[in-house]
Design goal:
about 450 residues, alpha+beta, six-stranded antiparallel barrel, 8 helices, disordered C terminus
Length: about 450
Amino acid sequence: MTSTIADQTAATSLLRFATAGSVDDGKSTLVGRLLHDSKSVLADQLEAVEHASRSRGQEAPDLALLTDGLRAEREQGITIDVAYRYFATPRRRFILADTPGHVQYTRNMVTGASTAELAVVLVDARNGVVEQTRRHAAVAALLRVPHVVLAVNKMDLVDYAEPVFAAIAEEFTRYAASLGVPEITAIPISALAGDNVVTASANMDWYGGPTVLEHLETVPVGTDPSTDPARFPVQYVIRPQTAEHPDYRGYAGQVASGVLRAGDAVTVLPSGLTSTVEGIDALGTSVEQAWAPQSVTVRLADDLDISRGDTIVATASAPEATQDIHATVCHLHDQPLTPGARVLLKHTTRTVKAIVKDIPSRLTLDDLSQHPAPGELVANDIGRVVLRTSEPLALDAYADSRRTGSFLLIDPSDGSTLTAGMAGAAFADSEAEVGTRDDDGWDF
């Protein structure tokens, strides 16, 4: 049964990946080259880029314009917002997030890389690993991105020298590995000239590895769902109450993790009620099992009080529902986050009231040092927080599940997103948990 699930998920292979790098390292040019050389650019798009390039006095088309869509980006020659691009090859479909390089847009990289299974970190071969490179590697490690590609760009400007590439690859790999990044692949490229982006370079015969596109097409995607604990956040309760279906009660949603099978013993959180899976409906047809990320309707053997925001989990691997959350967060909003702040916490389909009990530390990404008791987190800050929620949440550790271990903090006054959070320890090699301080005046 497991091989069937693995085979079916592989048949519809989709890779979400993000690009990151310092300013002027060539991210947008790499993305443009990737799209152009893989024949993923429409004729009118290419014509518009050629026209814009000529108007700027450039003889060759500036492929960076394929992704830098904002007027401010084109005028300044930088990436500001996250640009999403969708393309496909005969071997795989791709969703690409081109993220900004400036330090003040760290929050944009967090947004783009939060769902990525692979991150491409660019380095200018002339400059090597710089502070912003380490910052991006740390963010990728923080978000538990399983695959990282180091693209050493502008190799044409260092005469395609192997020692330059080898030194940069060794330094970056050592640093990323210390953060717990599980897999690092280094590729020497020239995005401007097209070396090792889609086609192999004739200028670097000393390199025998894959091109960027070859690696993107062949890197393993996802995990075997049957090895993960089953998690099913309920989005909607279906009660037709028609003559044809007078007693039908189904719970619609998307399987967030693992596999659900008919006959499985399940627990509903946060109530703790138990039942068994009586049946699963997918696209109007009864099926024996469903796995992440399929959207299905689950029917239980017992009529329980279940509503949107509840989570159906496998009883054997049920998480402990809790109101006290220790997490690493990236603050996204211009309004600072301070202890005592009252917020809404959105976890899967459940939204509850919460209070920021403490901000024990702020992470300095330059050297990974912890700044204790910062007092607040401002935009782009990454830090540790302690939260207290009004109701228990079935929260997994982010290290175990990126989907059910993540959450958002929302401003209750206007609904704007304040903070992105990841439950549990920060980095893969970090086991230490921060302490809490006593607070008075709690409402719940």
